[in-house]
Amino acid sequence: MSSIRYAEFKSRPYYGVLEPASALEHLIVAEGEGAHAVMELVAKAPAGFTSQATLLYAEGPYSPDNGNTEALRELGFARFHTSATAAAAVPRLEGALERLKMSTEVYLTGSESALSIFVKACTDAGLDYQGLQTEHRGSLARRVQCVHCKGITENVTTQPATCAHCGLLLLVRDHYSRRIGAFQGVNINAEDPSDIPAKEEMFR
Amino acid sequence: MGSTASLPTFKDGTYRDDFSFKNSPETVVRAPFPFDKDEYMYAVNMELHKDGRKGTAYEEPIDMDEHYLAEMRDRALVLDEDPLRCQSLPHMEMAGWDTLELLMECKAASFPEAFSLERDGDQWHWINRPMGIDQHFTFGDATTLPYGPLEYITRQAQGDFVVLDERDGNLWMDAGMVTTQADWSLDFDIGMNFFEWHAPVPLAHEKGIFQRALKYLLAVQQSNPARRLNWTMTVNPRLDTSPENYHQWGPENTHITPENVADKLFLRIELQSFWRLPRSNAILFPIRCYLLSMRDLSTVPKWATRMHRVLKSLPPELSSYKGLDNFREIAIDWLSEYDDGSPTTPGPFPD
Q1: Burial of B349 per CB tally in 10 Å (0-12, 13-18, 19+)
Q2: Does pLDDT of A5 surpass 70?
Q3: What H or E segment, with its residue span, contains residue A106?
Q4: Number of helices (H), then strands (E), in chain A
Q5: Does B196 touch chain A (CB under 8 A)?
Q6: What is the structure's pLDDT at A4?
Q7: What are the pLDDT digits (tens) for A57-98?
Q8: How far is CA B233 from CA B58, B117, B293, in A?
Q9: Can you count the helices (H) and strands (E) in chain B?
Q10: Could you tell me the residue ranges of all domains in chain B?
C-alpha cells in the first residue's frame, strides 16, 4: 500500500507500516488481514517483544477459518484476546486504554473501517492520533456518516451509496472526520432527485 | 474603535420560506464587495482589520446592519431544529468566555445606544436593547447564563463564529456557532486542523495558499485583528445553506431563469476576521455573511461590471466547487448589460 496516494486529500487519514518501537509495553489491535501486519511486525522486533505485548484481534465476522488466529496465538503474546469484529473489539480496547501505562506503544491495523473504529476509540480515550502507529490491510470499505441524518453506514463499497438510516443516495466524499471516525456522505441528487446515478464498486 | 457608528433602523425580513429579506440602498453601498480587480483567483488576501472606512461594513470591528434582528431570529430557528450547529469541545470553555468579552466590548463601544456592558469584578451586567435582553451574570460561571458563553453571545451577534485552538503549530477548529455557512458542516469538521477542514477546497493546496495563510494567522496578536474576504453565490437570500439541509434547498439551485435572476440570485460575501483571544490564546474567527442580489449590484455600476468579468473569467474548478454551474451563464448574460468594456477604477469601493 502506498501511503502517498492517501496523503493527497488533507483530511483523509493515511497509514504507514507498523514498526517495533522501543517502549516498555505494546498494545496491538488488529482486524482481519491485519493479522499479517502483526506477524511482520513481530518478525522485525527484537526477541521478547511479544512477552511485553497485548494483542486484541478481531477475526472478522463469523470467525473465518483462515488460520490467522492460530498463527497469532503461536507468537506468544503476554495477553491475547479475540473478538468477532472491530466494533465488537471496542469495549475490550476501551478497557485496555483505560489501564494503559506510560511508555506503551499503540499499533493499529486492519481494514479502513476497522482503523476508523480503532483510532476513534484511542482518541476518545485521550491519546493523540499522531502518536498512534497504523497500517492498512484488507478492505477499503468505508464508514460513512450521512451529513443530513447523522447516521453512520458501515462497510460502504459503492459510489454513490444509500444511507442505511434515512435512505438518501449519498456521494461518498474523501472528507474525513477523526472525531466521528467516518467519511462524509452528501446527498448526490439533491438538485434533481429523479436523477439516480448508477452505483459503482469503488471501495473494495 | 474611535467614533461610534450610527444605529441602523432594523428591518423585518426572512431568510427562508417567503424570503422577504431585502437590502435598503444604504445597505447595498456599504457592503464589503470582494473583488478589487476584474478577475478572481485564490490568494492569501489578508490585511489588518483596523481603521475601517466610514460608512462601510469595515467601519466598526464587529459590524451590525439593518438585518440584525432578522438574522438573529433566523439563527434561533436553525438552532431549534438542529442544536449541533453550536458546539464546543470541552477544553474550549475559556475561549468561549474570551469570545463573550470581546463581542460585548466591541458592541458596547461601537453602538452604545443599543448595547451596554458594566463590570464590577466578575459581576457583569449586559444590556442588548434591540433584542430586549438585560442580563446580570458572573463572568466565568456558565450557570449564571441561559446558554454556554459562546452560544449566549453568538445568539446576539450577526455572522458565524468559529473558535480555533492553537497547538502543535496548527489551528484546530474546536468550537463554533455556524448557521449562516456556505455549505460546510461544523458538526463534521469540529476537531479538525487548518489543513483538514480546508481539504475539499480545490487548487489552493497546490498553490501553497493554506501554508501561507496558517503562518499569517499564527502570527495574529491581540489588538491587531486581521481580515479577508471570500465569496460564493446563493439562490434566494438563504443564510442557512448548510450541508445538513442540502437535500431541502438543493433543488433551488436549478430555479434560476433569465426572468428571475436579478432578484433571486445573490452574491454571497463573507467578511472573515481573526482575533487573538487574551486568556485562551485561541483565535476567534467570525465569518459574517452579506447578501447582494444581482439587482442590488446593478445599482453600483462598477460592481455589476466587475461581477460580470469575474464570472466570465472564473476557472471551471472554482465555478464547480462554489456550486455556480447551474446559473453562471444566466448571470453573465444578465450582467453583460452593465459591462461596456471600459476599464474599471482600482480597488473594491464604488466610484
Answers
A1: middle
A2: no
A3: strand A104-110
A4: 5, 12
A5: yes
A6: 37
A7: 999 877 788 999 999 999 999 999 999 999 999 999 999 999
A8: 21, 37, 9
A9: 13, 10
A10: 25-245+271-291
For B233-268, what is each residue's pLDDT tens digit? 999 999 999 999 999 999 999 999 999 999 999 999
Answer yes or no: are the C-beta atoms of A29 and A118 closer than 8 Å.
Answer: yes
**B199 to A190: CB separation less than 8 angstroms, yes or no:** no
What's the confidence (pLDDT) of residue B3?
Answer: 56
Cell, residue A107: 499499533
pLDDT band at B349 (very low <50, low <70, confident <90, very high): very high
Q: Which of A168, A184, A187 sits opposite B188 (nearest CB)?
A: A184
CA distance B115 to B188: 34
Degrees to nearest 5, angle at CA A146 with A169 and A6: 95
What whole-number distance in Å separates Cα of residue B237 and Cα of residue B22?
8
Q: Which of A99, A98, B246, A96 lies closest to A108 in space, CA to CA?
A: A96
Neighbours of A126 (CB within 10 A): 8
- Domain segments of chain A as ranges: 3-136, 142-201
B251 in contact with chain A, both atoms CB, cutoff 8 A? yes
Give the whole-angstrom CA distance, residue A201 versus residue B5.
59
Mean pLDDT of the region B297-301: 97
* CB-based contact, B246 to chain A, within 8 Å: yes
How much is the average pLDDT of A149-164?
97
Instruction: Judge: B199–A174 Cβ closer than 8 Å, yes or no.
Output: yes
Catalytic: B228? yes
Cβ distance of A11 and B196 shorter than 8 Å? yes
Considering the four listed CATH numbers 3.90.1170.50, 3.20.20.70, 3.40.50.80, 1.20.1050.40, the one that applies to the domain covering A3-136 is: 3.40.50.80
End-to-end Cα separation, chain A, in angstroms: 14
CA atoms of A12 and A176, how far apart (whole Å): 5
